[in-house]
Amino acid sequence: MSEPGYFSSWHVAGDPTLIIVRSGTLRIGLRNGDYRDFIAGDIFIAEDRLQENELFDLNIHGHTAELMGDEVLLAIHIKLAEIKK
Cα–chain-centroid distance for residue 39? Predict the structure, then answer.
């Protein structure tokens, strides 16, 4: 759950993560300036990650996440790598 005004700067998902948006509008921003808005009912897999032994570089890696509008974001995050174990 995230409140209106939520913003997460550049980060990677790490392990592939299934995300199910239940309410709100989640905007995922990419390095090239593109973005996609996900709304209630949308399902996607976030799977950007670093290579083994690669260090995160704030200037080249990741995506941003931002809650758009004034509705609370409710989203389910399921780490897919944990299901395989």
Answer: 13
Q: Which of 68, 76, 66, 73 is nearest to 3 (CA)?
A: 73
pLDDT tens digits, one per residue of 10-23: 999 888 999 999 99
Q: Which value, in Å, is the radius of gyration of the alpha carbons in the chain?
A: 13
* Residue appearing with tokens 């995160």: 56
39 in Cβ contact with 23 (< 8 Å): no
Torsion angles phi and psi, residue 51, rounded to 5: -70, 160
How far, in Å, CA of 63 to CA of 12, rounded?
6
pTM confidence score: 0.86
